[in-house]
Amino acid sequence: MYEQSLAIARETGDRDCQMGLFLNFGAAWVALGDAIKAIGFYDQSLAIARENGDRRSEAGALTNLGASWTALGNARKAIEFHDQCLAIARETGDRRREEGAYLNLGVAWAALGHARKAIWFYEQMLAVAREIGDSRSEGFGWTN
């Protein structure tokens, strides 16, 4: 279905639709256990988001890229993407995205064996969760 939708989006020149479809393709490949293929689609979505100046979608693609690299066991590469996402979240005032970036950075640093650095990111995540009243994420932050 995504392939048919993508063909129509390309035919009509609908870049926003293409961007969303690339995210969907990536998620489908993640679900099938192929993070490498997912990364290819997330890269395409990221390129369109940047082309369009769509910072929110750019941050979303960066989050997915970071998660995919984490799944592949490359936490250092994941950190690069999560750092970029965090910068955009701060710039745009997207507190939920900021909260998620802190969590993802904590997970990546923990995977590298840097517990103190991971704890710092989890603490930042907890602070944001409290500020925005996200008790579910606050609980998850305490678990980490």
Features:
144 residues; Serine Threonine Protein Phosphatase 5, Tetratricopeptide repeat; mainly alpha; globular
Tell me what the structure shows.
The protein is mainly alpha-helical and 144 residues long. The protein has a single domain (2-143), classed as Serine Threonine Protein Phosphatase 5, Tetratricopeptide repeat (Alpha Horseshoe). It is built from eight helices and no strands. The chain is globular and about 50 Å long. The termini are far apart. The model has no long low-confidence stretch (mean pLDDT 95).
Number of strands: 0
Low-confidence stretches: none
Please state the second-level CATH architecture: Alpha Horseshoe
Largest sheet: none
Assembly state of the chains shown: single chain
CATH class: Mainly Alpha
Contiguous helical run count: 8
Distance between the termini: 38 Å
Shape: globular
Q: What fraction, in percent, of the residue positions are helical?
A: over 70%
Strand fraction band?
under 5%
